[in-house]
Structure formats: C-alpha cells, structure tokens
Design a protein that fits this description.
Layout: H1 2-8, H2 15-36, H3 39-60, H4 66-87, H5 91-105, H6 108-112, H7 119-146, H8 151-176, E1 180-182, E2 186-190, H9 191-212, H10 217-244, H11 260-263, H12 266-280
Antiparallel strand pairs: 1-2
Helix pairs in contact: 2-3, 2-8, 3-4, 3-7, 4-5, 4-7, 5-7, 7-8, 7-12, 8-9, 8-10, 8-12, 9-10, 10-12
Length: 284
C-alpha cells in the first residue's frame, strides 16, 4: 500500500510513517508472543521500551552536568522497581511509586551535590520524563496482571487502535490537513487529521472489540473515541516537548529517527484506557 502511495506522491516524504509502521508492527509481534506464551516476556520487553524511551529523552536535555547525570541514574533505577511492583501484582505501590515516592526523593542527588543552579529545571524535567516514558508506558504491563484472562487481548486491542489512529492521522494531515493545531511544534498534526482519525479509529474499534475484549457495545465504540483523543494529546505533548528541548531544528533534526515519536501516543493511551476500564469493569 505504501509503495503505491509513494509512486503517486513522489515529492512527499513518507520516511516517518515507514519507520513508525515498522516499529508498531514490532511491538505488535512482541505482544502477540506475550499473549501466546508468558506475561514475563511482555514485562521484560516493556522494561527495554521504557529504558530506551527515557534514554533518548535524557539525551535531548541540554547542558547536563555531573550532578544531573547522577539524577538520571536514579531515574533509571526506578524502571526495574516499577516493573517489580507489576510482577508481584502490588497495584497500590505501582500506582503511587513514581508520582509520589520517586518524585519526593528524586531531588536527593541534587541536594547531596549541593547544586542550586538549574535545580528546578533538571529535577522537573527528569520527573516529567519518568511520568511519560516509565509511568505511562508501564501500564501496558499491568493489563495482564490485573486481568489474566483478558489483559493480553486488551493490550493488543489498545496497540492496534493506537497504531490505526496514528497512521490515519498522519496520512490525512499530509493529504488534506490545512488547519494545523500547533504549527511551530509539529506541522503534521492537523484538526482534519484528528477528526478523520477519530472516526476511523472508532469504526475499527467497533469492528474488532467483540473478538479482543469483553466490553459491551457502548464501551466498544467509546474505546475508539477515548484512544483517539488520548493518543492525539500524547502526540501533541511529545511534539511540544521535543520543540522545547530544541529537537527538530536543522542542527538537531532527530524528528524522523526519534524514538519518542514512535511511542508518543502510547504514553497517554495506555494509562487512560487502563484506568477507565478498571473503573467501570470488574474484570480489571
């Protein structure tokens, strides 16, 4: 399909969508293996996913000093602990570990190092990276723990819809998108793409929810809307974040190769979908 589109539009740059599709299919294959074999495979793969996402995020922060690198090390150590809470099924600790305990004690390396210059920027930027790249994505691992019977299929359902939403939004914005949401941050995010992707994602959700989820008709349809909206805000947030960290200009043109662009939507769709389903249904 992409080859046909490329021949019809030889002047357009499809490299971003090619990379994203390959990445999504790789993630889809991992979750399929996790469904067929063991949830531990999923947890280990997600740990790697969080590590590389956080690593790239830290590489985007300018003017890091020795005390900042010590702060980053503490942040990396939070990844195995977060997934350990998932592995033992301790939901209470899983849900508060990063936003409460890690946030409270993360400034310690800066305090010990007696560094005051840039304290707020380095600590807050590290905390925000942990929220997106670790806390948000780690929810993908808790689906199977919260619901051994349906969890793996719910993850597949979520990944498929998030992928569909991303790809449709990209193509519609490229072909017919005129009203850009935030032109200075990402020219490929348009209102036309958002509306079209929401419609297509909702239709796909309606078609596949009976096969992958125990949801009823209402939530089968609303899931598509929910995932589309949250994925849109995830992409928008990461785009603005990259621009704020001066990624995307001519000197640091990493947008096409950026790892963050491949998981941006999941940082929002994974936790939002998880908590909505957990609140309304007993099987979670």
């Amino acid at each position: 399909m992409f080859s046909v589109v490329k021949r019809k539009e030889p002047t357009k740059d499809f490299s971003t969508v090619f990379v994203r599709v390959k990445t999504w299919w790789g993630m889809f294959a991992v979750f399929c293996l996790a469904t067929l074999f063991n949830p531990v495979v999923s947890l280990l793969s997600l740990m790697v996913l969080c590590f590389f996402g956080l690593k790239e995020y830290f590489s985007m922060i300018k003017k890091t000093r020795k005390v900042d690198r010590r702060l980053f090390l503490w942040a990396y150590l939070a990844i195995p602990l977060q997934f350990y809470w998932i592995f033992i099924g301790w939901y209470g600790m899983f849900i508060v570990f990063i936003p409460v305990y890690v946030f409270l004690f993360l400034p310690l390396p800066r305090l010990i190092g007696k560094g005051t210059s840039g304290f707020l920027r380095s600590v807050s930027s590290t905390q925000w990276g942990l929220m997106l790249m670790v806390f948000g994505l780690s929810h993908l691992g808790y689906y199977q723990i919260a619901s051994p019977e349906y969890g793996a299929n719910l993850v597949l359902f979520l990944v498929i819809l998030t992928q569909v939403n991303d790809i449709v939004h990209y193509f519609l914005s490229m072909y017919g998108g005129k009203r850009k949401v935030i032109p200075s941050a990402n020219s490929s995010i348009t209102w036309e793409g958002f509306i079209g992707a929401t419609f297509v994602t909702t239709v796909v959700s309606y078609l596949i929810y009976p096969y992958l989820t125990p949801l009823d008709l209402t939530f089968g349809i609303l899931s598509g809307v929910l995932i589309s909206f949250s994925g849109f805000f995830g992409s928008l947030t990461i785009s603005v974040l990259r621009r704020d960290l001066l990624i995307g200009n001519k000197k640091f043109d990493l947008l096409k190769e950026s790892y963050l662009t491949r998981v941006d939507s999941l940082t929002y769709t994974a936790p939002v979908f998880f908590h909505v389903i957990r609140y309304y249904f007993d099987f979670m």
